[in-house]
Amino acid sequence: MNKKTKDTLSEILQISIAIILASIGLKGFLLPNGFLDGGVTGIAILISEITQIDLSIILPIASIPFFLIGYVITTKRILIKSILAILLLAIVIQLESFDQITDDKLIIATFGGVFLGCGIELAIRNGSVLDGSELLGIYLSEKYGFSIGSIILAFNIILFSITALILTPEAAMYSILTYLVTSKAIDFTIQGFENYVGLMIVSQKSESIQEAFLNKIGQGITVYQGVKGYGKTGKTETKEIIHMIINRIDVRRINRLIEEIDKEAFIIEFDVNNVKGGKIRRLLLSK
Fold first, then answer.
1. Structure confidence at residue 14 as a pLDDT band (50, 70, 90)
2. SS in 3 state form for the chain?
3. Domains, the chain, with CATH or none
């Protein structure tokens, strides 16, 4: 079995686990107690509460406008994986059946948010989304310059305000708590959609890697001139150092591309907490 096949199977397995975790959070905790999450999932739950139509039917339908946005801004691979993931999530929600675990609302909001957040994080790590609001955030961010986090926050403020009017203020407040726990569960492992990853790459095939980044991905790069050295031998030869900033979700695809060109490339990955100026290519943008 070649590495590409192994990577594909690994992605499928991890996205499947992500779907199961998210469905446990929804079906095991939130849905039986009338709690909402943020984003498209929250909209679907609210519509389901009002119309009494099963969430497994509402969720894919509510996601369609965001799939259309994704068709414009994202790569086909990520869009297809996201569509399949959301459809499978709807199916799993329909099939799963849980006895009520607890009637403590604080525990429900906390653990429901943790399971849902871990599921979303695992899906993001493998190049997929379980909620279309991220696609909306990326689209508006590129068009108007607002941060993705601010757009999603504004989206959810409107959603929870409607929840308070249609359902009860208590349901809205517990839903906000659930959303905050979900966000923190994502931040704990992936540091959110907003943060970036920096890569420094040293390779004998630097020119080929640069060409692949610029032409195949459309990724901007910066190239430094460095000097190679080791131990007592000291400085030996000059080297080009490729420096780039990418969205965290794109790390696997970038590493796979580098490995196809040079398996011996030296790569340093580091967290980037803030980026200002310049032009950053969003992960989910197509060429």
1. very high
2. CCHHHHHHHHHHHHHHHHHHHHHHHHHHHHHHHCCCCCHHHHHHHHHHHHHCCCHHHHHHHHHHHHHHHHHHHCCHHHHHHHHHHHHHHHHHHHHCCCCCCCCCHHHHHHHHHHHHHHHHHHHHHCCCCCCCHHHHHHHHHHHHCCCHHHHHHHHHHHHHHHHHHHCCHHHHHHHHHHHHHHHHHHHHHHCCCCCEEEEEEECCCHHHHHHHHHHHHCCCCEEEEEEEEEHHHEEEEEEEEEEEEEEHHHHHHHHHHHHHHCCCCEEEEEEECCCCCCCCCCCCCCC
3. 3-190 (no CATH), 196-272 (3.30.70.120)
pTM above 0.85, yes or no: no
The count of residues in the chain is 287
